[in-house]
Amino acid sequence: MSTAFPPPERTAHPGPVVQPVPAQSATGRNTTARHTTVRNATVQPLPAHTVLGIDFGGTKTELALADPAGTVLARTRLATLAERGPEQTLARTASAARELAAEARQRFGAPVAAYAAVAPGIIQPDRILLTPNLPGWEELALAERLAAELGVARVPVANDVRAGALAELRRGALRGADPGLYVNLGTGVAAALTVGDRVLAGANQAAGEIGYLNPGSAPVDAVARGQAPLEDLVSGKALADRAERLLGRPLDATGLFRSTEPAARQLVRETLDVLAMTLANLATLVDPERIVLGAGLMSAADLILPELERLLAGATPFPPQLRVAHFRQDAALHGAITLALDSLPEPGPRPALADHLGAR
């Protein structure tokens, strides 16, 4: 019996024409397949080549075609369907990548010169470790598998949050901040520290895995038990689960922050307190000039940032600047694009990503 998958969704950018096509998802709910090509006046003349970045997430997988300046030309979104394991995700992602590569040739006359991917977890040279939001991906040789699926010699792979921090450092809200801190508040919770023009990877490629911090409410050996205490408390997934248990109906994290129900407001207050204490502790440790917040929870940034700024003012001796990521929820995707661009051969000296990002 064949397995049904939701169709790819080509998501919108400012200015594109989007033509939705109704489709049926694996769960029987209506979904929309959308193809979006970004028409941007800056893409003149047509690029000689393009790059393709892939962002694997616990909920969705996104692919973007970009020109040599990093401008997105077209993009595709897939449901990761993480509970079904990595094989189906890799197969559907490779198919979507081939479609974008064909579009690069047909619409722009510019072949894809480099691919790169980002994913949550600890990216080792030959495998991924600690991927609670991607069941079955533990020990997966992602770089090798992607290269085989795409029929290319090499696909650099890096941690999604550190790659997002690199994109924000090069072209976003961390430019000019030294040191800087990027905090990803999405399906998972993680951070990345930037010093100068570098993103620190750590001795075990695990720098910034703050989801494993213990806010004091979990046992001392929680990590040994397979828990990620902070992430289990304040990630987008955790908040949606807690809200549904509390209110008796489905409610995503953004809906929770915007809810006016007393029970929801109490949960929001508790969440903001934990986030503020976490940021204050990080700020006290590294004294960042600026903290940049990105990923899914930033769809409620207008409610979250002012309260975090207020709480931070009294929680650390030198409160840092607090900003929303320039790339909002797309920092990791732009990080993959940056990684692909950096892998292109270019005359003259250029920093090796593996030196400061942990890319493989």
Salient structural properties:
single chain; 360 residues; alpha/beta; Nucleotidyltransferase, domain 5; six-stranded mixed beta sheet; five-stranded mixed beta sheet; 10 helices; 15 strands; globular; ROK; ATPase_NBD
**Second CATH tier, the architecture of the largest domain:** 2-Layer Sandwich
Under CATH, the homologous superfamily of the largest domain reads ATPase, nucleotide binding domain
User: What is the chain-wise order of helices and strands?
Assistant: EEEEEEHEEEHEHEEEHHHHEHEHH
Q: Helix fraction?
A: 25-40%
Largest sheet: 6 strands, mixed
Low-confidence regions: 11-35, 39-43
Pfam family, one: ROK
Biased composition (Polar residues): 22-34
Region (Disordered): 1-34
InterPro entries: ATPase_NBD (IPR043129), ROK (IPR000600)
Can you describe this structure?
It is built from ten helices and 15 strands. It has helices at residues 86-108, 142-150, 160-171, 231-234, 236-247, 253-258, 262-286, 301-313, 331-342, 353-356; strands at residues 21-24, 30-33, 36-37, 50-56, 60-66, 72-79, 112-119, 122-123, 128-129, 157-159, 180-185, 189-195, 198-199, 290-294, 321-324. Helices cover 33% and strands 20% of the residues. The chain has 360 residues and is an alpha/beta fold. The chain is globular, with a radius of gyration of 20 Å. The model is unreliable at 11-35 and 39-43 (pLDDT under 50). A hairpin with a 2-residue loop joins β12 and β13 (198-199). Strands 3-6-5-4-7-10 form a six-stranded mixed beta sheet, sandwiched between helices. Strands 13-12-11-14-15 form a five-stranded mixed beta sheet, sandwiched between helices. Residues 1-34 are annotated as: Disordered. InterPro entries: ATPase_NBD (IPR043129), ROK (IPR000600). This is ROK family protein.
